[in-house]
Design a protein that fits this description.
Layout lengths: L1 H11 L1 H4 L1
Amino acid sequence: MYVLCDRLSVESEPVRFG
């Protein structure tokens, strides 16, 4: 979950993953 969401969220919501 983290690996998949990390790549998508990292651009959409970098605040969540840093």
